[in-house]
Amino acid sequence: MKIDQKRLVEILSLGGYFVLVYLCMQLFSSSEYDWMLEPGENICNLPPDPDDTRDITAPLSLLFLGVPLLIALIRDIIFKDIFKVVLYAFGLTTLIVYWWWSFWGQYSACGGAA
User: pTM for the full model?
Assistant: First the structure.
């Protein structure tokens, strides 16, 4: 099965966008005390962050990183390009799941208020 060059470029560009999203999410979701983690410890071992800004950075990061994918998805729905619709829907779903995990999911296993 031969992959069309245009489709390969779309897949690679989405992969590059995922790298950008990963780096931005790591930057925005980091805690003041993340440097204190030793090997084998998890996020629950950290003291509570008194200056927690996740309530501001989480929605802003989803807005700035998710809107380009949403616009591309809507554009390709209108143009009826099924391959790109599936690709961008997968990308947007992956972005939302990773966004949730970065800002709240990893803290939900701790049991206390995150």
Answer: 0.77
Neighbouring residues of 53: CB distance < 8 A, sequence distance ≥ 6: none
CA distance 1 to 17: 26
Q: Using an 8 Å Cβ cutoff, are 45 and 82 in contact? A: no
Q: Is the torsion defined by CA of 102, 97, 90, 28 positive or negative?
A: negative
- Non-local CB neighbours of 82 within 8 Å, separated by 6+ positions: none
Tens-digit pLDDT profile for residues 75-103: 999 999 899 999 999 999 999 999 888 88
Q: Are 28 and 57 in contact (CB under 8 A)?
A: yes
Q: Using DSSP, state whether 50 is helix, strand or coil.
A: coil
